[in-house]
Design a protein that fits this description.
Layout lengths: L1 H24 L5 H49 L16 H15 L2 H9 L3 H4 L27 E7 L5 E7 L6 H8 L7 E5 L4 E2 L17 E7 L4
Parallel strand pairs: 1-5
Antiparallel strand pairs: 1-2, 3-4, 3-5
Helix pairs in contact: 1-2
């Protein structure tokens, strides 16, 4: 096939060679006509060569590449145990699918309740065992501080809370409020009670905040300044 395709090229080259010899032996031919003829010959040669390359690629290279890919695919399926993909499927004939459905229904009817129970008992434990229920996450506690009383009311104290950053927060509380309200206030402004505690400035002493103790019980009877300090992790 390739030899037959190269024959016209050789013939054309020979014709071009003789034409050039003729033109050289006849100087009476104008130079422009000679150049124009040479350009036409080059174009014809290029077109013929491109056509030959295209035919060679379509008839030789492409089939070789397809055959190589097919062999690689077959090798891959054999190595992975998927040889069934190499076989051609068989189309179902008329009525084959209906017959299969009918036979399946008959087999299902034949299976009794006892047989089904025995089959279920033989299933692996991982299949029959019910899946454990996921533990529901506990709802996040929302901190809500009590309403701030008026400064003119009785039994009201103003507490200044100094943060490690140097910022100071002030708020009014009733003396009868639970002492744990100070922890809620501290967490509300961004300091968790796991890592921080509330201390008196002088002397430096952590407050004993209890659920059954009021602010007055822990010694807060007037305007007070308290510090938020990091807990000692040692």
């Amino acid at each position: 096939m390739a030899a037959r395709g190269r024959a016209p090229v050789l013939c054309l080259l020979l014709v071009s060679f003789f034409i050039l010899l003729y033109l050289r032996s006849h100087p009476l031919v104008p130079q422009k006509d000679n150049e124009r003829h040479q350009e036409m010959v080059r174009k014809e040669q290029q077109e013929l060569f491109s056509k030959e390359v295209s035919e060679y690629s379509e008839n030789v290279l492409k089939p070789r590449q397809e055959e190589k890919l097919k062999k690689l695919e077959e090798r891959f399926y054999r190595m992975t145990g998927q040889t069934w993909k190499l076989t051609e499927g068989h189309a179902l004939g008329p009525g084959t699918e209906d017959q299969q459905d009918d036979s399946t229904g008959v087999n299902n009817c034949v299976e009794t309740a006892n047989e089904e129970a025995i089959r279920k008992r033989k299933l692996p434990e991982c299949v029959t065992k019910p899946l454990p229920q996921c533990e529901q996450p506990q709802p996040k506690r929302v901190i809500v501080l009590p309403d701030e009383p008026s400064e003119s009311e009785e039994d009201v104290v103003t507490i200044a809370l100094r943060c490690p950053s140097g910022r100071v927060y002030r708020r009014r509380f009733y003396k009868s409020f639970n002492s744990l309200v100070l922890l809620d206030w501290m967490m509300k402004i961004g300091y968790h009670s796991v890592f921080y505690t509330i201390c008196t400035p002088i002397p430096r002493c952590p407050l004993e905040l209890k659920e059954n103790a009021t602010l007055e019980n822990i010694g807060i009877t007037g305007h007070t300044v308290l510090n938020i300090e990091e807990k000692d992790t040692l």
